Amino acid sequence: MHTGIDTVEISRIEKLLADLDEDSLQRFFSPQELADAGSGPGRAGKLAARFAAKEACCKLFSKEICLGKIEPFDFAVSRDGYGKPHIVPSERARAVMNFHRVRDISLSMTHTEVSATAIATVEPAVMPVPWYGKAFYHFAPWKRKIVMANLELVFGEVLTREQILDLAQAYYAHFLKFLGEFFLLPFLSEARKKAMVRIEGREHIEKAMEGGKGVLILGGHFGNWEVATVAGIAQFKEYFGLYHFIRRPLKPKWFNDFVMRRFWKAGFGVIEKTGTLDDILELLERNHIIVSIFDQFTSPKTGVQTDFLGHPAWTFKSLAILAQFTGAPVIPSSSWREPDGTHVLCFEPPVEIISDGPTRDIINKNTRRFNEALERIVLRHPEQWIWMHRRWKDKSGPRNG
User: Against a cut of 0.85, is the pTM above it?
Assistant: First the structure.
């Protein structure tokens, strides 16, 4: 079992308390940690134990610490109703934990008059694999070579072969459910469609629309994106006719027509990848919502190469350009299937857009920020992303599969 241990001298924290005011201390401790430590003579010892806990957690993820992906402040200590300490990770730390398939970190802390010690222990996440996922993987292995190559590329250094196989088979189980839900959707009543999708983060869309500059949705192939989109956005009656999806035509043509009819009926507009920039700018000026499917490979002509899940990937630069020159907020969006079979359509706070510096640097940095948002989404439910897509390619073709 993976464990991190750290010891901190209390005198170090006493000096920190003497040198810094309360606001400055929040660079090292969360407001809740400072409150829990109180203001009495034992405060330094309690904070030392918490600082040791942060350092112990960092030792569980030494590579990410070296790369600057996380730091001690990304782990906060809280106590449950029984006084038991537990770790509250930041969004960045949660993404790292998800990448390593860590469900939780258990914690033990103690301190003497001179030092405090903490032990952080990994509690691994277990990926349940239904029998039909195993069967599909073995007996109808559609694009299995690509799926396994992608999973090994992303997780090969941190997961065992067995864990990667579990992810692959869980993905095939998800894909079978995806197909069944996709073809069942037209036969469901409006009440049933509404009941199968829960909306989270609705307030982020509403606040963004108040700006009057339009909204850019940063989306991808998460969960059952077709079902969650059609049944979820239909609940935004006030925005009927304002959503427009940038997407490539599907093949074969009959399947594309089937999907498009469903979109048009739901009040969605569709802008083909070959559509003009003028069309998009006009819609944003009218305060419409543009949905960009951002997790697919693009060519060097239309993209920039930036990291995605730890490896270089050609990524669309158009979203960064639109965000920079229109001022429209970029809202990450995702969907996932819950264990009970219902779906969640989630909108997150807008990505902070960089606007200072040379244009090329701005585009590269903002595109990387968009990929970081998608990485966090993928890692929350890795079995529900489209691993059969050839996401990582170089100029001459695919690197994997």
Answer: yes
